[in-house]
Amino acid sequence: MSMRIESVCVIGSGAIGSLCAGHLAQLADVSVLTRRENQAAALTEQGLRVSGKTERHVPIRASHRAADLPAADLVIVACKVTQLREAIAAFEGRAPDATVLTLQNGMGAEEVVGEHGSWPIVSGVTFMSGVRHSDVHVEYELDTATWMGPYHGTGTSYEVAAAIGELFVAGGLRAEVFADLRPAQWSKLLFNTAVNCVAAVTDLPHVGVFARRERDTDLGHLLSDLVAEGKAVAEAAGVELYEDPWEMNVRAVSVGQTGNEAYAHVPSMLADVRAGQATEVDFIAGSLVREADRHGVPVPLTRALYRLVKARDRTYDD
Ligand SMILES: NC(=O)C1=CN([C@@H]2O[C@H](COP(=O)(O)OP(=O)(O)OC[C@H]3O[C@@H](n4cnc5c(N)ncnc54)[C@H](OP(=O)(O)O)[C@@H]3O)[C@@H](O)[C@H]2O)C=CC1
Ligand SMILES: CC(C)(CO)C(=O)C(=O)O
C-alpha cells in the first residue's frame, strides 16, 4: 500500500535528526521532539539552519514533550540507539497511524521500537554525515545515501519504504530503497565496526590514514583485516554484502569534503567518547561478535576492538 506523508515527527535533533528535519521541512509539516527544553525553545525561536552540502534555514515546531506535538504520518527516530528506549517510550500510545523509520547504526533498533508500539517499521541506515555546530545549526558533510527497506517483523510493505525514500530525495537528501535491507545493513555494520571503533580508541577523525596501506605500520591494514573478519561472518550468516565496506571506507575519506576543508568527520562513536557518554558499541561491534559466535567464526581483532571500546565506555558507565 502506498503512503501519503504530510507530517513528520523527528525524535532527536542531533546531527542526523537535524539533517532530516532541515531537508524535509520544505515538503511536510515537520515537528521535532527534543530531550532538552532549551533546545526546543531555541529551535522554535530561531528555526533550524543547515549549511555545507546544502543551505537551508527553516522554521521548526519543537518540544521536549511528545504530548505537545501533533500526530504524524512518519516518525523518524534519530537519537542514538542507547537513548532509543527512553525516547520511543514517550511515544507509546501516540501516533497510532504513523510509520516509524529507524536510522540507528548497528543492529537492534527495530526491536526496541517494537517493544513500545505496533507501528509499521521501515529500517534505515544512513551514510550521510553531519556535525552539530549548535542546537539550531547542523553542517551537512557527507551527502551520501540513506538506505532503507521494510522491516519484515512488522509486515511493512515495500511501497511504504519507497514513499519515504521519495520524500527524502524530493527534500534534497539521497536515498536508496531495498526490498531486503539486510545486505546493505550488513555492509554498514562492517564499515561502522571497523571505522567507528578504531576512531573511538585512537581519537582520530575519519581521515585518509584509515585507508592507507603503504607501510607495514599503516592503520589501513587493521581496517582491512577487520573488514575481512566481518566478511567471513556475513558469509557464514548467508548475507551477500551490498557494498564492500573497505571500498566504503576508501570512498568516505576521499569524497567527503565540505567546501575547501579536508574531510575530517568525527564518527558518531568518537563523538560519544569525547562527550563522555555511552557509545553504541554493543549494537555495532557487539552485534557482529555475537553473530560470529553464533556461527563459530573466529573474530579476534573485532573482539579485541569491542573490548577496548567497552573499557572506555566503562570509565563513565560503572
Ligand atoms: N552523526 C553522524 O554523522 C552519523 C550518525 N549515524 C547514526 O545516527 C544515529 C543518530 O546519531 P547522531 O545524529 O550522530 O546523534 P546525536 O548525538 O548528534 O543526536 C542525538 C539526539 O537525540 C537526542 N535525544 C536523546 N534522548 C532523547 C529523548 N529521550 N527524546 C528526544 N531526543 C533525544 C539528543 O539530545 P541532546 O542533544 O539533548 O543530547 C540529541 O540531540 C546514531 O545511531 C548514529 O550511529 C549514522 C551515520 C552518520
Ligand atoms: C558518518 C559515518 C558513515 C562515518 O563513520 C557514520 O556512520 C558515523 O559517523 O557513525
UniProtKB/TrEMBL annotation:
Ordered alphabetically, the record's keywords are: NADP, Oxidoreductase, Pantothenate biosynthesis
**Which Pfam families does this chain map to?**
ApbA, ApbA_C
Q: Name one GO cellular component term.
A: cytoplasm
Ketopantoate reductase C-terminal domain mapped to chain residues: 180-312
> What is the E.C. number?
1.1.1.169
Q: Name one GO molecular function term.
A: 2-dehydropantoate 2-reductase activity
Q: Which GO terms describe its biological process?
A: pantothenate biosynthetic process
Give start and end of each Ketopantoate reductase N-terminal domain: 8-152
Q: What class of enzyme is it?
A: oxidoreductase
**Pathway(s) it belongs to:** Cofactor biosynthesis; (R)-pantothenate biosynthesis; (R)-pantoate from 3-methyl-2-oxobutanoate: step 2/2
User: Which reaction(s) does the protein catalyse, per the Swiss-Prot or TrEMBL entry?
Assistant: (R)-pantoate + NADP(+) = 2-dehydropantoate + NADPH + H(+)
The protein's matches in Gene3D superfamilies, at most eight in alphabetical order, are given as:
N-(1-d-carboxylethyl)-l-norvaline Dehydrogenase, domain 2, NAD(P)-binding Rossmann-like Domain
**Highest taxon of the lineage:** Bacteria
Family (UniProt): Belongs to the ketopantoate reductase family.
Q: What does this protein do?
A: Catalyzes the NADPH-dependent reduction of ketopantoate into pantoic acid.
* Protein known as: 2-dehydropantoate 2-reductase
- What organism, scientifically named, is this protein from? Egibacter rhizosphaerae
